[in-house]
Design brief:
Layout: E1 11-14, H1 30-35, H2 37-43, E2 47-50, H3 78-90, E3 94-99, H4 109-116, E4 128-129, E5 156-159, E6 164-167, H5 182-198, E7 202-205, H6 241-253, E8 260-264, H7 270-277, E9 286-288, H8 309-322, E10 330-331, H9 341-344, H10 353-365, E11 370-374, H11 395-407, H12 412-422, H13 425-428, H14 459-463, H15 469-482, H16 484-488, E12 490-494, E13 501-508, E14 511-518, E15 524-525, E16 535-539, E17 549-550, E18 555-561
Helix pairs in contact: 5-6, 10-15, 11-12
Bound molecules: alpha-D-glucopyranose.
Domain Glycosyl hydrolase family 13 catalytic: 13-428
Protein name: Glucohydrolase
Pfam families: Alpha-amylase
Length: 562
Amino acid sequence: MTDSWWKKSVVYQIYPRSFADADGDGMGDLRGVIDHLDHLAELGVDVLWLSPVYPSPQDDNGYDISDYQDIEPLFGTLEIFDELLAGAHARNMKIIMDLVVNHSSDEHRWFQESRSSTDNPKRDWYWWRPARPGMEPGAPGAEPTNWGSVFGGPSWEYDEKTGEYYLHLFSKKQPDLNWENPEVRQAVYAMMRWWLDRGVDGFRMDVINMISKDVSLPDGRLTAGSVYADGSASFIGGPRLHEFLQEMHREVFEGRDGLLTVGEMPGVTVNEAVLHTDPQRHEVDMVFQFDHVWVDRGPDPWLLVPLQLTALKAILGRWQAGLADVGWNSLYWNNHDQPRVVSRYGDDSPAHRSASAKMLGTVLHLHRGTPYVYQGEELGMTNYPFGGIDEFRDIEALGQYRQAVELEGRTPEEVLTVLRARGRDNARTPMQWDDSPHGGFTTGTPWLPVNPNHAEINAKAQRADPDSVFHYYRRLIELRRTEPAVADGDFTMLLPHDERVYAFTRRLGSTELLVIGNFSGVEAHAAIDGWDGAELLLTNLEPPAGGLCLAPWQAVVYRRSV
Ligand code: GLC
């Protein structure tokens, strides 16, 4: 078994496009990351995850890669990348890369070759299929399956040159690689070894539970009101997924130490995650599951469902219990695909923003697992006040809007209401460094506007204020280092039926921690006995006067010996 140093670590995600722009072109870059390494070191994080920085047409902001072994010129060069890696390592921070190998860009030379003729040696590196039997190739409805793509429209694109379709679960500029072909797998493994040899410390694996597909590619079930079917039963956790991950481990990671692997797995179940993260099985160290960020999503995608705290607790409690003995959890509220958590599960009004951001951080970080902080989360950055659809840049928002409004008869306002609350661009507005015109992100024109609240919410002001979200996160991260029960303690959920209070204990040997968060804007009493006289380790507001009576959005952490 390899060492599991990452159980004691905190990971920080950088979305380079929106982090810091050093050359004034309005787009973040690697030099900008280098310039802010001290901010990250001061926060105390151990690992940086870089969203894709490879050459890319940027159709999906870099998740469409046209060359896996170079750096996107907008972001810098390999030399600057090496400098960044050295700068991070010098500050005791590791760097993991985003590995996007379910699909490549259609501008990758592999795909260019593949599409050039039906007998090209790389033809089979992607999923090519003829039109549906008896139908005219290219005609509406002639796609090989009825699946919709994640970004709207069908998941097949007709290619006139060879008269066949290729599969793209995401945009048509993201053709799916065919992992059934051993040459594809070997090419990916070689590329991964090349990065590890260069000194990177692991990978975050993009939609890695979609790489194995049911090769018969059956139609999916159509639901009322949608024009395309959900094909996910044929590609989520497919038949050869475990085999591929184990092969990858053998070919890439065996014999190397100190690395971190995390697989992004939408739709993964607890039971599957146990198998994926069991160290004896040699697949990945941890997975990103989605249940807790889908809790406010109903059967109708264009209806907002408010958070029900008991449902959130049931989900996270189930994941904690499921991976208690074997495997390991990742912990996250935010990433580049999710709206800002303080706007989503907290309260981003001036009165409660700071308290609720700290409360959410406390509850998340003190679960058992490895916490992930997404850039700006450590400042309590909020959703952006989006107006019309023309203000969105995200291919998902634009594609889903088009499908819903033009094909499925939804009104623009009902779709916009959901995009404003949940759209991915909320996470992608530039990092707020200071109160200058573009928040210190760029001296040029930012590719996506900076949130107007950067005048109040910014890193410079928070670093100077000991009561800020930033310094609270710093203390929270430090607690993982000073209190062993945070990383290693057992987890027990309390008060599962309480709609306001989130409460749990962590226990390691004779040390027990009690963590309580008030998920509401009113005072709440936590009905938990036996903690009188316990040591108060951390709170985001004035310590409770007596009993466990919490102010709106208050978090408290107690410690006692048992
Ligand atoms: C993952 C990424 C997301 C991207 C998609 C396709 O879910 O996190 O940003 O659009 O995969 O690569």
